[in-house]
Amino acid sequence: MTQEMSDARLQAILELPPARRHAWFLQRVRESGEVWGLYAEGWALALDDEGRDVLPLWPTDISARLCATHLWEGFEPRRIPLEELLEQLLPDLAEEGIPVGVFFTPRGQGWPVTAAELRTQLLGGASA
Questions:
Q1: Residue 53 carries which DSSP code?
Q2: In a 3-state reduction of DSSP, which class is residue 118?
Q3: pLDDT digit string (tens) for 70-89?
Q4: Could you give the count of Cα atoms lying within 13 Å of 72 in the half-sphere of its Cβ?
Q5: What is the pTM of this model?
Q6: Residue 100: is its pLDDT beyond 60?
Q7: How are beta strands 100-102 and 111-113 bridged, if at all?
Q8: Which of 26, 21, 22, 23 is nearest to 11 (CA)?
Q9: Among 21, 32, 12, which Cα is nearest to 81's?
Q10: How big is the CA angle at 5 (ends 13 and 27), to the nearest 5 degrees?
């Protein structure tokens, strides 16, 4: 029963509009102290509407695993501690001009945000 409830809750979260999923992502990541990416000999990347690389990030390993299909088949969820995200990864992405796609779903794009904006939001600045 517990697994069914968590599956139902995950499904409900996946159905949220992108801005609400982004807000949920921020809350979850602050509470858990981690984010998840997809990895296979390098991080999975997506493309934005302008053809630029985007790093997709998820709030849970399960939500990341759900997206390990099609172009990302064979990729596995990999944990990124919040401290590493804030102190290393996001500053590196900001320097390289690579935005983040927050909380992709199997059927849709993530919420686009610059690495600097996401860092500010996770540190307690403005939410979505």
A1: E
A2: helix
A3: 889 999 999 999 999 999 99
A4: 23
A5: 0.89
A6: yes
A7: antiparallel
A8: 21
A9: 32
A10: 40
